[in-house]
Amino acid sequence: ASYDAGEHASFMRKEILEQPAAAERVLRGRLDERFGTAHLGGLNMDARESRAIRRVKILGCGSAYYVGQMGAGMIEELARIPANAEAASEFRYRNPVIEPDTLYVAVSQSGETIDTLLAVQEIRRKGGRVVGLVNVVGSAIAREVDGGIYLHAGPEVAVASTKALTTMYLAFALLAIQLGRVRDLSISEGRRLVTALQALPEQIQTILDTEEELAAVAHRLAQARSLFFVGRVRGYPVAREGAQKFKEISYRHAEAYQTSELKHGPLALIDPEVPTVALVPHDELTDRNLAALHEIAARRGPLVVITHPDVDLGDLAQHPEVTRIEVPRSERELDPILLTIPLQLLAYHAALTLDLDVDKPRNLAKSVTVE
Ligand code: G6P
Fold this sequence. Notes:
The protein is of the alpha/beta class. Helices cover 43% and strands 16% of the residues. The strands form 3 sheets. A 5-stranded parallel sheet has the order 4-3-5-6-7, sandwiched between helices. The chain has a 5-stranded parallel sheet with strand order 9-8-10-11-12, with helices on both faces. A two-stranded antiparallel ribbon has the order 1-2. β10, α12 (286-298) and β11 form a beta-alpha-beta unit. The structure holds 6-O-phosphono-alpha-D-glucopyranose.
């Protein structure tokens, strides 16, 4: 084969390790340091058309849908355009209202996922404008859309998507900055984000360098029958993606929740047998996040806290059930991508410990091309 896992144990691990290079490729030639903006010529949209957008609707399936949620968050935060993501598999069945001033964004690694493709066709049939965030050049979705951003992640073979997701996230960051800079995002804010984006490939590498430590944590998590992944606001789609990866390759039940909603249900399930992986970035919600984690520690629920070096866990650090994992800080709007990386390695090493086929989990396909 012209593309094989080579010296790596699996395609998934190879693709995880390729992320710094993939991140550089998706950003290459698209950042403008001088004006603190991004250039996305493939969108086929001039400044006036970009300004006329009143809403952004993102469509994708599986992990692409979760990255879409992260993207919607960035677009709202940086461009102040109302944005949300929806599972493409549900979209067309509710006879959606298609608006001329909405920008529809289809996200897909393969460009062949049938539900995403049919959503694109339905929107275009009703006169909507759709752009694609697609990895495979010339794929069905890439051919159907009005414009787009190619991800340049390179071939991805493992069913569980890793490097393609990272490039999707970065493409959303570029889109958010470009849409922001024709609105109220200032040149200095734009430059702050461009500088942060340029630092990300190296920051991803520093997380990959902690693989051994993450593998040890994964060995313990793999013993649990059921786990929670929790985060708030920017961290919530990260938790969803983390739970998805974990369940699809380790076959352990993993459920994502907003940390703020724990007290409305899941706390009833917390005991020493049910671990929680919690995302606690340094942001405006750190203290509230930590308060919720005390509720878990009080019930002796094992906790893996993924956080930033300058976050003080306070009393929590004394609990024997608490493990701390650190990722470097970016700018707060871009933190989610760095929080996602350790979750990939936790899922990967949990599946490896359980002696499962990490590249080809049972019952799942790399791309779902029939309805
Ligand atoms: C399948 C894969 C997922 C992927 C999803 C969407 O479910 O197992 O890893 O996220 O399809 O695929 P796409 O090619 O559209 O990104």
